Amino acid sequence: MSELQLHPKAAESLSLWHAMIRAGDLTTLPGLLDEQVVFRSPMAHTPYPGASVVSMILNTVSKVFEDFTYHRELATADGLNVILEFSATVSGKQLKGIDMIRFNEQGKIVDFEVMVRPMSGLQALGEEMGKRLGAYLAASKA
Q: pTM of the prediction?
């Protein structure tokens, strides 16, 4: 890992991602997602594939998180992967986590993986996401 030196298209997409997060509006997110994008949840064993499902997950979690803040950004040498460290609160539980985002050379997100700690924060996140998206996600895997 090195200082953030992303592929130009990935850097452009990451800049748009940060702007959406700051604005609290992810309506343009589908334009950043590859159709075959995969979301890897800290709660689920198997990934969730597809732009519409990933967009729904990220739009929902952006509403679940309170006091969401990114702290550090790291990039891989190829400039197509970034790790974003964050903190947030869910249902009164503080948590820390990382978003691991992989871009293709066109700057589209192809893989979005989230890791969260501590367990109490992860449980609060899983509970709230389950309330809001449980039926939708179960149907999307069918």
A: 0.92
